[in-house]
Design brief:
The structure holds 2 protein chains of 2 kinds.
Chain A (H helix, E strand, L loop, with lengths): L13 H24 L10 H31 L6 H25 L2 H28 L5 H28 L10 H29 L6 H23 L3 H27 L8 H26 L7 H40 L12 H4 L2 H23 L1 H40 L1
Chain B lengths: L3 E5 L7 H11 L6 E6 L6 H8 L1 E7 L5 E7 L3 H13 L3
Parallel strand pairs in B: 1-2
Antiparallel strand pairs in B: 2-4, 3-4
Classes of the chains: A mainly alpha, B alpha+beta.
């Protein structure tokens, strides 16, 4: 039997859409918190309001959109069916929204009980998601490396959440000290094991498919994910056996993984077969440039013994790499889903012998106009450059950076909502004739 | 009218390869078959072809990674032409 990317296996549009549309709302909330607290907020990564901002972005924007994308991609790319997808997505989406808000509010308002609420809600969200998704992936007949890497990313998500809950427990009661030395492990598993691994797994499929490039080399697909995972495991062991030399070596090897992926992706994009301008490609290029900048800046700082601004690495990794890649993918995922679901409705009409009542499904590039995406990209790019500068010279760059960042998130939300509204109108028209 | 309709979708992004292939298949007249060239396995195509009453045969391509031959179910003339092309080796 042929692999069939089936309409029936795709969950209803509302399943991924609710996650993807929620993401920029959290981006906007993060910008509001930054504006409220002013330039002092970025003096230290330990500032409670800064921790609130970081988690609004990593949970509210990144985990939100990545779980939503997985709910869509697992059935469509790997032929797995998630039972009762609308119910399941509500069970995941609602506590993720409330948990992310509670955690941010806990830091902003300094209410201890809110940490407990966040721990319970987020613990529930990630435990249920990982359990269901891992079970489905293990049963999938697909042998594509994306499946293995998604499983590794889920394991990393579980470790990140576990470490996060342990760290949050330190804020709940007097008797439980905040285990700050574990923070680096929490963020390594989160940003590299979960975010980077999943972006890489998805890139292996969507870059050749949508950007019309060659496939990533076989060795790259086969080994890079595993290498990353083993390096993170080794890094975790150095927490128990702190050997400075080994830690430095692992850091270099992890940086090499980022560099190999970024350079390989840029090379594939450079040699793409189709030269039509494409906004998503610009997002991919910016995401990869951020990774390269991150590795070089950290490398130079290490060799020259310079101390980097506390948040520069975070800006490049979270806003520069991860949010940029996800933002770009949204501009393919949402129009593709709209096309897929409208085509499915048309099929129902054909089956009913009412071909003449089918609606015209527009070209994917018309659903989110190329120009709207391009301007949002330009604003996001400018915001990113200013955010990086703001970590060095907050007095000069903080407000323009945050205002542009808010504008980019607002623009993304507007673009996504327009697409959702377009789908709603077409679907209503189709339902009326069915 | 030529018996073979050639369609190269290898430089198109999803869902255009599927859309254009289905449109071209719908235009086939008796005796004609569609030879579709693509850079990868067309994942959504075969279910759609089954549903619309087309037969198909996929093979490794020469200029592109994949070639799919498509003809209307029951069109014996088109089918025998496809079989001939497939058995003759590469034209």
């Amino acid at each position: 039997m042929h692999a069939n990317l089936s309409l029936q296996q795709a969950p209803p549009f509302s399943v991924p859409a609710r996650f993807l549309v929620s993401a920029p709302v959290f981006g906007l909330l993060a910008a509001l918190v930054l504006l409220w607290h002013g330039p002092d907020i970025i003096s230290s990564r330990w500032n409670p309001p800064m921790l609130a901002v970081t988690h609004l972005l990593t949970l509210g924007f990144l985990a939100m959109s990545m779980l939503g994308a997985m709910l869509q991609l697992m059935p469509v790319l790997m032929g797995m069916v998630i039972p009762r997808p609308v119910l399941f997505s509500s069970i995941i989406h609602t506590p993720l929204v409330l948990g992310s808000l509670s955690l941010a509010a806990a830091w902003l308002l300094q209410y201890r009980w809110l940490f407990l609420v966040a721990m319970l809600l987020l613990g529930f969200t990630f435990a249920v998601f990982v359990m269901v998704a891992a079970e489905r992936l293990l049963r999938s007949v697909s042998r594509h490396i994306t499946r293995t890497m998604m499983l590794l990313a889920l394991l990393a998500l579980l470790l990140t959440a576990g470490l996060g809950i342990y760290l949050a427990a330190g804020y709940v009661g007097e008797t439980f000290a905040v285990a700050r030395q574990l923070t680096d492990l929490h963020l390594s598993w989160g940003l590299l094991g979960w975010v980077f691994m999943l972006v890489m797994a998805v890139a292996y499929q969507v870059i050749p498919m949508f950007q019309i490039t060659d496939d990533y080399p076989k060795w790259h697909q086969r080994w890079l994910g595993w290498l990353l995972f083993v390096l993170l495991l080794a890094l975790s062991l150095t927490w128990f056996y702190p050997l400075a030399g080994l830690q430095a070596l692992l850091g270099v090897l992890l940086a090499a993984c980022l560099l190999v992926f970024a350079l390989n992706t840029l090379w594939l994009l450079h040699r793409r077969r189709r030269t039509l301008p494409d906004t998503t490609m610009k997002f991919w290029q910016l995401a990869m440039a951020s990774l390269i900048a991150l590795v070089f800046i950290r490398g130079i700082a290490m060799l020259a013994g310079i101390e980097l601004p506390a948040l520069l690495t975070g800006v490049l990794m979270i806003a520069g790499f991860a949010m940029t890649a996800v933002n770009g993918m949204m501009y393919k995922i949402i129009p593709f889903l709209i096309w897929l679901h409208l085509s499915a409705r048309n099929k129902d009409l054909r089956d009913a012998g009412r071909r003449e009542q089918q609606v015209k499904v527009p070209h994917m590039r018309k659903i989110i106009p190329e120009n709207a995406g391009l301007w949002q990209f330009r604003i996001h790019f400018a915001a990113l450059v200013l955010l990086a500068l703001a970590t060095c010279w907050p007095a000069w760059f903080f407000y323009p950076a945050v205002l542009l960042f808010a504008l980019a998130q607002g623009f993304l939300l507007y673009n996504l909502l327009n697409a959702v509204r377009f789908y709603g109108a077409k679907r209503t028209a189709l339902q009326a004739v069915l | 009218m030529t018996a073979e309709v050639l369609l190269d979708v290898s430089d198109l992004e999803p869902p255009e390869p599927l859309v254009q292939t289905l449109e071209a298949a719908e235009q086939l007249t008796p005796g004609q078959y569609l030879r579709m060239l693509h850079r990868r396995d067309p994942c959504m195509l075969f279910g759609n072809l089954d549903e619309r009453g087309f037969s198909y045969q996929q093979r490794e391509g020469t200029s592109t990674a994949v070639e799919v031959f498509i003809w209307r179910q029951g069109d014996a003339e088109a089918e025998s032409r496809v079989r001939q092309v497939l058995s003759d080796g590469r034209p």
